Amino acid sequence: MSKKIVFFSILISISATFYAQRDRVENLPTFDKRKLHYGFFLGVNQNDFKLNLRNSSISNANIIVEPSSGFNVGLIADLRLHKNLNLRFEPGLVTNSKNIYFHHINSAQDSVREVSSTFLHVPLVLKFSTDRYKNIRPYVLAGISYDYNFSSNEDNQDDNAAGQFRMKSSNFMYEVGMGIDIYLNFFKFSPSIRGVFAINNELKYDDDANSQWTAPIHFMGTRGVFLNFAFE
After folding, report:
1. What are the distances in angstroms from CA 105 to CA 99, 114, 152, 223?
2. Beta partners for 231?
3. Are 111 and 61 spatial neighbours (Cβ–Cβ below 8 Å)?
4. Domain spans of the chain?
5. What secondary structure does DSSP assign to the chain, as a single string?
6. pTM of structure
7. What is the architecture of the domain spanning 2-231?
8. Local confidence band at 67 (pLDDT 50, 70, 90 cut-offs)
9. pLDDT tens digits for range 17-39
10. CA separation for the pair 134, 26 (Å, rounded)
11. 77-109 burial by CB neighbour count: b if 16+ within 10 A, else e?
């Protein structure tokens, strides 16, 4: 799915670029002079977990994560710091689900855990843009974000022994990406693609220090690809 997302984003950008160049009239000529403007975005994502295992009492540990696709929706507040630099606040909701397979566990019921996530994603991003050329303007972006996972089960007293896979509610990410601004007649359309990577370990360990589910895991953190379509 990640290759499809990348290919689709490139296709959208190239098509939009050629469309923008058809018209010699410069649309929204004063748009970038605004100190502050707002917008919204819609998008899709593909998330999985980066796993680092460690030596534990589970010597034959074999854990695989099956990534999945989900949806993004949110708002945009853009502050102009310089003609080529903007600070963006992009709070939104992100949903997806993942399956984690514990191949060292023989029981079919215990060897898989479905982790469904709905979280508040709150990034603060710096956007570095080139000078505008007619009706297009490529850019790169980088920033940090805070995620609150509404589906974490962190406060649940049950753990994997009772079928409950738990994660931390509050997590921090860093993200990098690129995109292109397309100036249309009445608004600016901006397709972008970015990678999102966890900074902290998101796993809430089981109460049993020798748990066959969590004892082998040293680090588990989200990594994902976001394809967003912004309207400003």
Report:
1. 15, 15, 23, 25
2. 40, 189
3. no
4. 2-231
5. -HHHHHHHHHHHHHHHHHHHHH--S-SSTTGGG-SEEEEEEEEEEEEEEEEEE---S-TT--EEEE-EEEEEEEEEEEEEEETTEEEEE--EEEEEEEEEEETT---TTTSEEEEEEEEEEEEEEEEEE---BTTEEEEEEEEEEEEEETT--TT-S--GGGT---B-SEEEEEEEEEEEEEE-SSSEEEEEEEEEEESS--B---SSTT-TTTTTEEEEEEEEEEEEEEE-
6. 0.83
7. Beta Barrel (2.40)
8. confident
9. 555 455 568 898 888 889 999 99
10. 6
11. ebebeeeeebebbbebebbbbbebebeebeeee
Tokens of 67: 């990534």
Tokens of 30: 């004063």
Take residue 156 and report the two structure tokens written for it.
């649940």
